[in-house]
Amino acid sequence: MIKLENITKEYRMGEDIVHAVSGISLEIEEGEFVALVGPSGSGKSTMMHIIGGLDTPTSGRVVVDGQDLSRANDKELSRYRNEKIGFVFQAFNLHPTYTATENVALPLIFSGISQSKRMKMAAEALETVGLAERASHRPNQLSGGEKQRVSIARALVTQPKILLADEPTGNLDSKNGKHVMELLSQLNKEKGITLIIVTHDMEIAAVAGRIIKMRDGQIVEDER
Amino acid sequence: MRFADVIKTAFYNLWRKKFRTFLTILAIVIGAVLIALMTSIGTGLQRFIVDQFGLMVPQDALTVYASNRSFSYTETPYEIVDTSDVVIRSFTADDVDKLLSIEGVERVDYNIGVSALYVRAEGNEKKYSISINSGPDYQIKMMTLVTGDFFEEDSSGECLISFDYLGAFGWEKAEDAVGKEITITVGKSNAYNTETKNYSFVISGVILKTMNATQIVISMNDTIEMARYYRNNPNQYSPEQPGTSLLVKVSDVNDVERVAEIIRAEGFSTITPNEILKEINSIFSIIQIGLSAFGIIALVVASIGIINTLMMSIYERTREIGVMKAVGATRGTIRMLFTMEGAALGFIGGIAGVAIGFVAGKILNIIGSYTFLSDYPTFEMSVFSIQLVLMVVAVTTAISLIAGLYPANRAAKLDAVEALRYE
Fold first, then answer.
1. Given a cut of 60, is residue B371 above it in pLDDT?
2. Would you state the pLDDT for residue B211?
3. Does A31 score more than 70 pLDDT?
4. Hey, what domains does chain A have and what are their CATH numbers?
5. pLDDT value of residue B178
6. For residue A102, which residues of chain B lie inside 8 Å, CB to CB?
7. Which member of A74, A75, A110 has the closest CB to residue B327?
8. What ipTM describes this predicted complex?
9. Which among A49, A89, A110 is the nearest to B328, CB-wise?
10. Lowest mean pLDDT among A155-159, B194-198, B411-415
11. What is the pLDDT of residues B156-181, one digit of tens each?
12. Closest chain A residue by Cα to residue B15
């Protein structure tokens, strides 16, 4: 499903070249629940961005669902992100003036789906995350946990094969964090969505079926 | 992304920052008002001149010159190869016959020019400036009578005065003028006006003002007599000396261009009314461009405001752009969204500007009709056409769209990962 072959990613910071990821090879099967853990600067976020098609590796090959991302152009990558990937961010990144439904419907605008169909699909996604009654609320009228569930609904609305979550509980208290994690693992189990979570919280990682530990841009441990 | 969604999103984002949007649009509105108003005034003036031209110049007549009147004015001396290029030729009796024999030519008249020193009205010693107008019947009858009658073509001692002399001569109503006597004083031009002669005329009618304001119209016979005295030449405007130009009347107005071609083939020169009209219109297009230049300058300044507004908006919405990219917006989509925001600013500004300009033009017309334009009841100073409205909106939209390109490109090129991290 996801296949990384000898991936490196280098950044230029002034005079220095920073190796965010150096020579990683990895395979993730469809329906897996993977936790990418490691200290900050270990390259786990970069890995997630490369898998999500937000970033391209300096060298190596990324093949997801038969599509070679390392050779894709902006249009192909955008379409890939739109159709196959759902992103969940630590800071939710909801549009402050949009209602929950409008926020959830955002990815569908870029798929060229009509307004009425967008609203219908967004309502269904909100239903899935249990927020149907909050449909017309704006982000400032929602609790942190609710915001993250709206953001999960936004990630789900295009029915992607892969969910990528970057510290999804980082801005939540432990109770809400637990709820969000339950929702994510439920989606993984019931809908068979491949779930990759970036975290430094080992308690959260423990829920995952596979934990990949990273340090200095390399995988130090891969445990199922 | 659907085009309707692009437009909707652009307007939505402008609406989110109403005050900033308002200020940016205000600058565009100023430019649009200037362009709309200036061009509409240009159109108004053009219509006025063209209408006046139609009132003053018969469309079925030609002024024909004996010599080729293409004088060249150059700053450096140039060699004259053929003296006929610089000599102003006069017509001969044969030439007149030649013109009369052209098929479609109805009549040929002398093109008489004379200038007088001043005019006085009976019982009034005050002298007033004067410009004498004369011509064949078909020309005179084009003028609009306020009261009285035209004089007969072969009459003498009768005249028409233009409306503005009434006040000067102290007559309250146009009717008061009819039957009164005026005296025109002519000076001998080659005696430096030391010798003068008075000619008396009875007013037969009062005519409406044209652009040629202070005019008095007399018959051709009287004008010829005056001209002979003025130039001290008893043979002026006779078959021996028809003058350097002649008036040729064509029987059918549709024949004018054909007759003009034959006249030119004979070695004379002439300009048809249509050609003059074309010339006037082309001069006015230049004037209009000149007038709207102020508006264009204002729009260029406004477009800097648009760039600024959109750049600010990109900084504020960096994360939003990152999210849009993460959920599937291409660079092209982001570029289009911001370009559309720029274009929308120009579109709204253009529409508001045209509306304000239209109202201002109407107010100008009303003020004008009571003050400086009261003598020309049919003249509207500001004339709006649907083309003008569309042109202004198109120009403001296009300029704003172009202004939006740079910020839009900046937004499109933002790195998605960086944009998502942006605080």
1. yes
2. 59
3. yes
4. 30-49+74-223 (3.40.50.300)
5. 93
6. none
7. A110
8. 0.94
9. A110
10. B194-198
11. 999 999 888 888 898 988 899 999 99
12. A97
**For residues B245 and B379, what is the distance between their CA atoms, to the nearest angstrom?**
33
List, as ranges, residues 11-30 from A with C-beta within 8 Å of B.
Answer: none
* B396: closest CA of chain A, how far (Å): 28
- The yes-or-no verdict on residue B346 having pLDDT over 70 is yes
**CA-based nearest residue in chain B for residue A102:** B9
Contacts of B124 (CB under 8 A, 6+ apart): B169, B170
Distance between CA B7 and CA A109 in Å, rounded? 12
How do the domains of chain B map onto residue ranges?
3-54+279-421, 61-110+237-251, 113-236
| Residue B56 confidence (pLDDT) | 75
Residue type, B50: V
Contact partners, residue A56, CB within 8 Å, separation at least 6: A50, A69, A70, A77
Beta bridge partners of A27: A3
pLDDT on residue B72: 56
Asked whether A217 and A19 are in contact (CB, 8 A), the reply is yes
Q: Which residue of A has its CA nearest to B2?
A: A112
**Is pLDDT of B9 > 90?**
yes
Residue with tokens 């970069």: A46
Residues of B with CB under 8 A from a CB of A: 1-2, 5, 9, 16, 319-320, 322-333, 416-417, 420
How far apart, in whole angstroms, are the C-alpha atoms of residue B130 and residue B187? Answer: 13
Which chain A residues are within 8 Å of B325, Cβ to Cβ?
A: 54, 78, 81
Does pLDDT of B355 surpass 70?
Answer: yes
Tell me the pTM.
Answer: 0.76
pLDDT tens readout for residues B12-23 = 999 998 999 999
Q: For CA atoms B49, B55, B56, B59, give the dihedral sign.
A: positive
Contact A63/A3 with Cβ under 8 angstroms? yes
CA distances from B118 to B127, B168, B408 (A): 6, 13, 70
Q: Assess A78–B contact: CB distance below 8 Å, yes or no.
A: yes
CA distance A45 to chain B (A): 10
- Report the alpha-carbon distance of residue A168 to residue A153 in Å, rounded: 13
* Mean pLDDT, residues B190-203: 86
Which chain B residue has the Cα nearest residue A111? B1
Query: Considering only alpha carbons, which residue of chain A is nearest residue B320?
Result: A95
Work out the average pLDDT over B141-153. Answer: 89
Task: Retrieve residue B35's tokens.
Answer: 């362009």
Mean pLDDT computed over B280-288: 86
A112 touches chain B (CB under 8 A): yes
For residue B51, pLDDT over 90 is answered with no
Contact list in B for residue A152 (CB cut-off 8 A) is: none
The alpha-carbon gap from A128 to the nearest alpha carbon of chain B, in Å, equals 19
**Tokens encoding B24:** 């940016």
Please report the sign of the dihedral spanned by the C-alpha atoms of residue B410, residue B415, residue B418, residue B420.
positive
Nearest to B327 among A74, A82, A97 (CB): A82
> Tens digit of pLDDT for each residue in B30-50?
999 999 999 898 888 888 888
Mean per-residue pLDDT, A127-134: 93
Closest chain B C-alpha to A81 CA, distance in angstroms:
5
| Contact status, residue A200 vs residue A39, Cβ threshold 8 Å | yes
Tell me the DSSP string of B80-93: -S-GGGTS-----H
d(C-alpha B44, C-alpha B65), whole Å? 32
